[in-house]
Amino acid sequence: MDISFHKREKREEKTVKILGWNTLHFYPPNNQEIADFINIKNADIISLQEMYKEEVGLHSLFTSLINFRKDDRKSLNNDHLFLTNTDIKRFFPNYKYILTSQDKAILSKFPIEFISEEKLFHGFGYFIAKIKFESQEVYFINAHMPYKFNMTFGYEEKKTIFDKLYTDIENLKGKKIILEGDFNAAKSSYFIRKLFSILKEGLEENKTGFLHTWHNAFPIWRIDYFFHSKNIKCVRAEIFDPQNFSDHKGLITEIVID
User: Fold this and answer.
1) Is 37:246 a contact under the CB 8 Å cutoff?
2) How far apart are CA 237 and CA 226, in angstroms?
3) Which secondary structure element, helix H or strand E, spans residue 38, and what is its range?
4) pLDDT score at 162
């Protein structure tokens, strides 16, 4: 397997290229096209959300969720909805990977180890992995956080999972941390403002234009972020066009590993 560090001409620094993206629907017949689209980016680490295996209409699925009782929502966490290990090996043969039983995956050209996971219904939550870059370790958190569906699942549930995330970040204090994902929250929200107070954010550090990542109902809304601890330097960050594969734009970042 070819692992090549990216070198920036001006800085002459070793960097690691990271792709983060909510794919919306990773299902046939588009799954090979989506995999090809991701692979051509040649990222060292790939962090993905909404890795659906079968053709599931998300609009109808989310609409039905609104009317579900909490106990009924558990029935949606079926592994057959999502990509399998066989799928990942076929689509991304050059990567080591962690694929959760819900909807998230981290693929890495470097050694990767699963640490822990916090789950909500229908794939929401986050998981933590440890990636080893030569002699250094980075804790990578892939997050897909909930938004408010109705009065029975709303602010308190969202606050609970974010509070768990803040605690996990605090417990990793002094370590190198990357937090990437779909947070379903605007920059002005309490949840994101708190993350900005404890971590740095790659796109804000490397502004290259208008920052918006979700163009479904709110074309100017940003809900996807690339946070990192202050002991990591992000030297490049940009948003890429999803080519009609998803309602989310993707993130490409490069970090210095030494």
Assistant:
1) no
2) 9
3) helix 31-39
4) 94
